[in-house]
Amino acid sequence: MSKPPARMRLADAAFALFDERGYDQTTVDDIAERAGVGRTTFFRHYRSKEAVIFPDHDRLLELIKDRLATSSNSTALVAVSDTVRLVLLHYIDEGDLARRRYALTSKVAALRDREIASVARYQRLFREFIANWMGDPTESASLRAELMAASVVAAHNHVLRRWLRGESSDPVAEVDAAMREVLALFPAPNSLAETGRGTTVVAFRSGQDIDALLPALRRLVEDEPGH
Question: Which of 79, 89, 189, 221 could form a disulfide with 71 if both were Cys (CB 3.0 to 4.6 A apart)?
Answer without folding.
Answer: 79
